[in-house]
Design a protein that fits this description.
single chain; mainly alpha; 0% strand; disordered C terminus
Length: 508
């Protein structure tokens, strides 16, 4: 099959085919992001049907995110070598197959294996979609609009996943949450070869196989430790896990700097905008996921909403997100310095955290408004720095650049939950009455589970949790104000270059 004919105009602007292809890419991207949260309401039904042990239930939840995070850099580099469209289609086939296996899993072990395969497929889809956007949209203005859409879909997918699972489980069986993936993946497999251009590095060198286990050994222990700390505390095992991961990260970086054909080319970080974009992306994800740790519990446990009711309320802050990234892109295209827009995005996020710090135990609308303001600011940041990172990277390294941004987001999200979650937990344990039972002193959920036996415990625990949320929100304000200053300093004078030629495209 030959490369599909592009409708790109002589001026380098994308035409109808490229925008149609972007629409096709958005569906699998939405589903991959939804899979992060799709099990929230399905796990009770899965527990009744498959009877997993406690450990197996944790792996059903976590294996997807662990495999996804561990393989992002590998898949980004592989796409640069074998072709991003080819890897995308392979990943779509794997994701669809894994979805079918998961839907009809007859044991916990089978479901865990299927979720791991879903993580492998997701690791190919996420950087491939971003890299293909870099390939298809060579005009900076159009590329910024496309990346803004990409960022909005990613954010919306995480919020929508839990709601969709609740609706499907209520009216169908739990396997339906996986079957909804099949039409989108089938559409991608049918239309992708005709709409998507193939592109790859024309001179990639040998694939750096030793870096594959090194990258996984660097990412997985750190992500595991950071994900467990918010609920289990700073136990020695989790600290050791993070330390081991950081040691392997040092070995991974050393290999990338010394080997002749590295998985991640260190030259990527020589572009003025790339390294700051990676760091700022980590901070943005830190802020977004750190707030989600509290607001989801606040809606359910403090305001006493049902899980589905809380998820539906949580959709409201997502409504203004659709306008945030396009508005920021329009400002940049009209000549507003990107550094100012990103700085304003972080400042807006800080304002959202400031509102969250004012919430009491009955502040539904204040919390929703705070989440909406925070999300709008962070989406502005993510859209702008993603565009800057991809524009700063050579087109032949688009897959690697995309995977680094995604890996930074995974680290940032886990770190946000760990750090802000630990701050909130420390304040909760300080504020809960000393006479409260041990279970109540650990978590709000533990307190509510025995609240009917201890007069006044539920009110005290909810107030203590809200105080913890306020403390974490204040920390979020400080972080994002600092990030705003960092963005103003590091992005000043950094511009997006116009493409001087069509990116290298390969026939299949």
């Amino acid at each position: 099959m030959t490369n599909p004919t592009s409708t790109t105009t002589p001026s380098g602007r994308a035409g109808r085919r490229e925008w149609t292809a972007l629409g096709v890419l958005m569906l699998p991207l939405l589903l991959v992001s939804m899979d992060v949260s799709v099990l929230y309401f399905a796990i009770p039904a899965i527990s009744v049907d498959l009877r997993p042990s406690g450990t197996q239930q944790l792996w059903i939840f976590d294996i997807y995110a662990f495999v996804l995070a561990g393989l992002l850099m590998t898949m980004g580099s592989l796409g640069d070598r074998i072709g991003r469209r080819r890897l995308l289609l392979i990943g779509a086939a794997a994701f669809g197959t894994a979805s079918l296996i998961a839907a009809y899993a007859s044991s916990a072990e089978t479901l865990i294996a299927a979720r791991a395969l879903l993580g492998i497929g997701g690791a190919t889809l996420m950087p491939s979609t971003m890299a293909l956007i870099r390939t298809m949209f060579t005009d900076p203005g159009q590329r910024a609009k496309a990346i803004g859409m990409w960022s909005g879909v990613m954010t919306a997918g995480i919020a929508l996943g839990s709601v969709m699972s609740g609706v499907l489980v209520q009216y169908f069986w739990w396997g339906s949450i996986f079957l909804v993936n099949l039409p989108a993946m089938a559409l991608l497999l049918v239309l992708g070869p005709f709409l998507l251009p193939e592109s790859r590095d024309p001179a990639p060198g040998r694939f750096d196989w030793p870096s594959v286990p090194l990258s996984m050994a660097a990412v997985l222990p750190v992500v595991y430790g950071l994900k467990e700390i918010p609920s289990e505390g700073w136990q020695v095992g989790y600290v050791v896990s993070i330390t081991v991961g950081l040691l392997f990260a040092a070995l991974f970086v050393h290999r990338q700097r010394t080997t002749a054909s590295p998985m991640i080319d260190p030259a990527l970080f020589r572009g003025r905008g790339f390294a700051p974009s990676v760091v700022l992306n980590l901070i943005a994800s830190f802020a977004m996921m750190g707030s989600a740790f509290f607001t989801t519990q606040y809606l359910q446990s403090v305001l006493d909403k049902s899980a589905l009711e809380a998820a539906l309320w949580a959709l409201l802050p997502s409504v203004p997100i659709g306008a945030a990234a396009p508005t920021a892109t329009a400002l940049v295209q009209k000549g507003v310095n990107r550094a100012y827009v990103v700085t304003a995005g972080f400042a807006t996020g800080a304002a959202g955290y400031a509102l969250l710090a004012l919430a009491g135990t009955d502040s539904l609308w204040l919390v929703l408004v705070a989440c909406g303001v925070l999300a709008c600011g962070i989406v502005v940041v993510i859209a702008q720095i993603t565009d800057l990172a991809l524009s700063s990277a050579p087109v032949e390294r688009a897959g690697s650049a995309s995977s680094l941004m995604e890996t930074a987001a995974e680290f940032g999200g886990a770190l946000g939950m760990a750090v802000l979650g630990s701050i909130g937990t420390a304040i909760y344990r300080h504020d809960i009455p000393g006479s409260a039972p041990d279970a109540a002193r650990e978590t709000l959920g533990g307190a509510l589970a025995i609240a009917d036996r201890v007069p006044g415990l539920a009110t005290a625990a909810r107030e203590a949790f809200t105080s913890g949320m306020q403390g974490a929100a204040i920390a979020g304000v400080v972080l994002l104000v600092g990030a705003a200053g960092l963005a103003a300093m590091t992005l000043r004078g950094v511009t997006v270059r116009e493409e001087t030629k069509e990116p290298e495209k390969a026939a299949v």
